[in-house]
Sequence to fold (503 residues):
Amino acid sequence: MNGALMRASSRFAIAAALGLAVGVGSARAADLGGNCCADLEERIAELEATTARKGNRKMSLTVTGQVHRAVVWYDDGKASTTYYGLDSTNASSRFIFLGNAKVTPKVTMGFEIMIEIEAGGTSSKVNQFDEDGKVGAQISGTAAPGGSFNQHNVDAYFGDARRAAWWIEHADIGRITVGRYETAGVQATIDLTGHLLLGASASFILLNGGFFIRGTGGQYYAMTWANIGDPAAASSGRTELVRYDSPAWNGFILSSSLAEAGDYWGTMLRYANEFSGVRVAAALGYERSRDRATPATVDPTGAFWTSVSPDIEAWGAALSVMHVPTGLFAQGHYNAVDFNGPNHVANGYWGSAGGATKKDATHWLIQGGISKNWFGYGNTSIYGEYGKALDWGAEDAGRNFAGTTATAGCPGNNSVCTPTIANFVAVNGVVSTEMTVWGIGIVQGFTAAATDIYLGYRHFDADIICTGAATATGACAGAAGGAAKKLPTEGIDVIQMGARVLF
Fold:
């Protein structure tokens, strides 16, 4: 059957399905001459233009994604609770539209749109007082803006465009991506198991970042764990950019990106290969941001255009190794950020909130274990992990966390946004912060169902040094002459059990 006949058959099948072929009046049906066929052809063309279909016969269309929901239990040293059905920010629920088309044997063009859940109860937003997650004025019904999702008919929504970009790729030259996408730059842990980071993400605050740190006397400090932890991604962010990715050469891929107004750029070199049953993956990246944050009041004569620009530099390295025959593996990463004090200006990148003397920060994680298909359903991965996040909440001159304002996350870390808080204990003059994390867990894959079920445990400890010299009140007040002292804190235990279903 030739192409013309196939197209004609398809078009008349559409007409028949919609009742057009039998809906023609008897007089017109008997008249095979005139303009009957022309009218029918025109009507079919109109229907084809409005009929939903897979792609447009040239650009393919694939719909894919994942659903990832979890049950989270915590114990902050003084109280414990279980939250049910949260979306896990370690790998959020999302759906993805993908398309591509061949232009020549070596040139392909395509697009990607990825939308993830942003509102409602998520593992990074809940805390001791709020199991729903705050979305401010977007809450409807009887709850005031900033209230909870307590009404049964208030729906969550998919609202965060992780990716929205088109690309063009030449097999010998590489790929150019234009749109919203991950920047080339610092990379976090590369997971060779493919599912370990569901319950044990490379970032420490995607599971418990919204919880408030508590003192040994049961008091709540005006600090969340996100205030002393790594930025949510612990790696390159997503923004509007132009990005280049080279073809793979002996396992190496070089990538670079230019974002915002040209004042945010990065580059990275990635490597993946296998030697005699040993699988290796590695990455080395660097990025720099001088992007200005737009002020609340835009004034062309104001200081915005003449003030000191932000200057934040970050670099990182990651290495993962797996012995495929036995399934034994080790993987991890190290990231460092230079905020270029003493003239630091916060702009939202890399958890940059803080004063001009914001301290440089580091973050590292090591994971190890075994991943093997023992039961025939899919790989079972058993792991342990240990890591630290250093000085993300500190300033050389001392950073203040007040107890009556919304300092707990909103301006300093986009992953956590808490309401205005009252009667929390202020923590003043913070000059050093250290978060220590260790954990264990197990993940079971079910290949036939494209599903992974996991159980993961993490313990978090905080080591916070403050002076109290900045104010006369607060948790660190009383230190003679503003001398540094350790803030008494409780650790927190978090268990997450959940499943990710791919579709």
Summary: Residues 4-48 form one domain. The chain has a mean pLDDT of 82. The first strand starts at residue 62 and ends at 75. DSSP finds five helices and 21 strands in the chain.
